[in-house]
Each structure stands twice: as structure tokens, then as C-alpha cells.
């Protein structure tokens, strides 16, 4: 690979992966710096790299030109023939590198506008990129009536698909198992010990729904723009999880103490309303959460009257900077948060600002001034996402909430058709 010499070039650096995606500033399987041209070209050689037909080289190039840095990302080369002709890689036109406030894995991103993470789900990379959650959702702050299991997650035709099922229809389970059986997820369990197995007892039935969630395990960032092209699930009492979750829990591990951002969600019910208020699949909602007692205080809604959010794909995005958080859908802004004199916590009602002391060591964006990571999932039921309307078969405060949800199976499971799944086409994170 080479670029022609031009006066002013001082260095060329390259990072590449073979048959695996890469984006700046991730370090590749192969990397190198070229400090001087040879025969009029800046050339990077890999004489020991053995290529086969249809191999794909994914790479990005950084060039220092007149003391400024220029980067070209998302480059690919597919091996289609072998001959003695030199395949030249010429550096496309680039814009000047603008300073970035984004950090990735604790290090500054090179340039604003750089793609720092991208996955189009041609495959599910569980070795380096994603952790497929495998646990009972007992440590989930929304207490959904589910377990996350690996078998609910797959990729098909360039899409990540998470499709829920009933636990009682799984091998070795039946309706009686929900009252008296045990669920053992110790093999491959990704949660703390209390989430790896449980036995049904009395009203504490097994989680009725088996679903899925993936969390990025090797990519963390602070500040950036997130884009998720997805088709949200439809089906009673389902809801998607398109989340930014804290990586190090800088401000504490209690629920929401270190923050969480719902990039977008919509309840799966096609018909869910009270008087003139619609709560169903036509209502998008989301936003930052930083206090358990007032978790909904900063949640905003975006309602449409034409069609449900789960009917087709939409692009849900988040812009996160040291000064603001902005939520968009299909390029249209629907919610914005700017911290005031008291920071992000000052946006909460006064009765909810008792937690402000934990954020005193942070910036005005605290707790959203630390590195977060992406998590994509699908949940059902729980005690936070569905208002206690007459048609809801359980009450959030009831000790038998999960039992009542399961006992109403005949009323809600019939609504879970082909669209009762979360489909994600791609995820992209760009430096700001």
C-alpha cells in the first residue's frame, strides 16, 4: 500500500485488520509508520502477510502534512486477483483535522468527525467487540420479567436480531416449571452469582420471557455522536434497550448513580392509552437518567400520529458533548439537555437534588463526563416502563407483579408476531 510523495508529508501511519472491521483509533492486527518515501512513494509493506482470494483488508491511514494531521477512515481492499501489478492505494481528498473532545479507551480521538466505532452486523464479533449477556435480570434497575440468554441473539442478512421467547416452551420446561422448576445459566453466565441461577418458589415464578442483550466490551468512549439504525419491537409489554451505560461507574454502582442514557425506546403495545394520552408504539421516549427516585424526571417523549415506530427502520441518534445532550430521530431533534449552574443534576426537581454531592468532583455534565459503552437489548414487563393502566395485568408495586404478568400470557402473547423483535442494522460512533 502506498501514496505518492508530496512536499510537506512528514509521516504516514496505517492500522489494518484482515477480514475484520476496524475504525480509528482502534489498534489493528497489523500497524506501522512510514517515516520517509522510497522512489517517490510512501509505501507500507507486509511481506509476511499471506492473502487468499476474497480476503478483505480493512484499514485507515493517518498522514502528517505540513505539521497537521489528516485521517482517512473506513477503507477496504478486497483481493480479487493475483498478478505482478502493484496495487496502489492513493490517499483520497481529506479535510483538515479538527481537534476532538472525544476520548476512546481513555485516549483522545485524533480528529472530530472520525468514525471511532462501526458495526454493520455482517457477523457478531463476540471475541473482540460484543458480550452477549447470559443471566437472569435480577440486577436490572427496571426489574423486567426476563432472562437474557445467548440463544435469543443472532445475525441475519446484515442485521442484529433479538427475538424473545417463552421460557416455558424451551426444552425441559413447561408451565409447571414456572412454579416449581429452576433456571440454571451458570454456563456462560455474564452477571454476578445471584443472576446465574434461581429456583421458583411461591409467587416468585421463573422469568416468563427469554430475551437477549449485547454490550460492547472493548469499546468505551466519552463524548461523541451515536447513530443506531433499528426497527423497534412490536408486541404487548415489550420495549427495546438502546442504551449508553457507564463503564467504570465513577460515581457509584447504585442504580443510575453513574448515569444511563436511553437513546430511544418505545413500548411495543399498538394500543395502550388512557383518555387522550397515548403510551403505545407511536410514542418515542428517552433521555438521561441520574437519580433512581426521579428516574423519569428528564425523560422526554416524541409522538407521531402517522405510524408506529416499530413499523419500519429509523435512525436514532445521540449527540453528547461537554456542554449538551441532544436526541434525534431521522435527523430531527426531539430532545435537548444543557446543564445549568448546578450541572446536570440541577435539571432535576429540587427534591431529587440530594444526590448532587456525589457529583461535586466532576464537571457540570456529571455523571455524563466519564466513559460509557453501548448496550442493545429487548426487555419485557418490569416495574418502570408501563404505567398502571386498567389493561395492564400487573401493578408495579405488587409483590405478585411477575406472577400476574405470566398468568395473563393468553392476552399478550398472541400480539407477538413477526415484528416482536429488535432489529439493528448498524451502529456508528463519531468523534466530536
User: Structural class of the secondary elements?
Assistant: mainly beta
Mean pLDDT: 92
Determine and state the CATH class of the largest domain: Mainly Beta
User: What shape does the CA trace take?
Assistant: globular
What's the CATH architecture name of the largest domain? Sandwich
Number of helices, where a helix is a run of at least 4 consecutive DSSP H or I residues: 3
CA-atom Rg in angstroms: 24 Å
How many structural domains can be distinguished in the coordinates?
A: 2
> What proportion strand?
35-45%
User: What distance separates the N and C termini?
Assistant: 29 Å
Overall strand count: 32
Structure write-up:
With 432 residues, the chain is mainly β. The chain has 2 domains: 2-98, Immunoglobulin-like (Sandwich); 130-430, Jelly Rolls (Sandwich). It contains 3 helices and 32 strands. The chain has helices at 175-180, 401-407, 409-412, and strands spanning 2-4, 9-18, 30-34, 41-43, 56-65, 68-78, 103-104, 107-108, 115-119, 130-132, 135-136, 146-148, 153-156, 159-162, 165-166, 182-184, 197-199, 209-211, 213-216, 221-222, 224-231, 238-246, 260-265, 273-274, 277-278, 283-289, 300-303, 314-320, 325-329, 332-337, 372-380, 422-430. Strands 9, 13, 14, 21, 28, 29, 30 and 32 form an 8-stranded antiparallel β-sheet that branches. A 7-stranded antiparallel β-sheet has the order 10-19-31-22-23-26-27, with no helix packed on it. A hairpin with a 4-residue loop joins β28 and β29 (325-329). The longest helix is centred in the C-terminal third of the chain and has 7 residues, at 401-407. The radius of gyration is 24 Å and the shape is globular. The protein starts with a strand and ends with a strand. The relative contact order is 0.15. Residues 1-84 form the CBM39 domain. It comes from Plutella xylostella. GO terms for molecular function: carbohydrate binding; hydrolase activity, hydrolyzing O-glycosyl compounds. Keywords: Immunity, Innate immunity. This is Gram negative bacteria binding protein 3.
